[in-house]
Design brief:
The chain is mainly beta. 11% of the residues lie in helices and 39% in strands. A hairpin with a 5-residue loop joins strand 7 and strand 8.
Length: 140
């Protein structure tokens, strides 16, 4: 019989430059994606199939925070410093309670999020560019 696993969204950890980022928005609050496929398939005229490993492991991490999250202030400060002196390349880590992990040792904030103001609080979407994203699957 298989063990039942339980995903707990509130136990997801996201950190950048040593800061734990909190105040995630409702719904999908983090997306981690590579820019390109890991392999390219080649099929010859005789049907023989081969594949080529793509060395590009760069990608994008998108984090959606509530407008009221204190982490917005932290990220704005880190971005302002980076825009001033170029020191904003740092470690970005995403981990859920099931031990799924994505890590980039060289990540940076692309730009400040769009500002939307209205009658109700909205979300702030932070996009990080990553030189290389390494995925670690859960332990067996």
């Amino acid at each position: 019989m298989a063990d039942v696993k339980t995903y707990i969204p509130g136990d997801t950890q996201v950190s950048f430059a040593g800061y734990e980022l909190t105040g995630c928005a409702d719904g999908t609050f983090i997306t981690v994606e590579r820019e390109e496929d890991s392999f390219t398939k080649h099929v010859g005229s005789d049907g023989e199939v081969s594949r080529t490993l793509n060395p590009n492991q760069s990608g994008t991490v998108t984090l959606t925070l509530k407008q009221t999250s204190d982490s917005n202030r932290v990220l704005h400060g880190l971005l302002a410093t980076d825009e001033g002196d170029g020191s904003g390349v740092d470690v970005l880590m995403v981990k859920d309670n099931l031990t799924n992990r994505a890590m980039a040792t060289e990540a940076w904030i692309s730009k400040p999020p769009n500002m939307e103001l209205g009658k109700e609080a909205s979300n702030r979407e932070w996009v990080f560019q990553c030189a290389k994203i390494v995925f670690t699957p859960p332990a067996e």
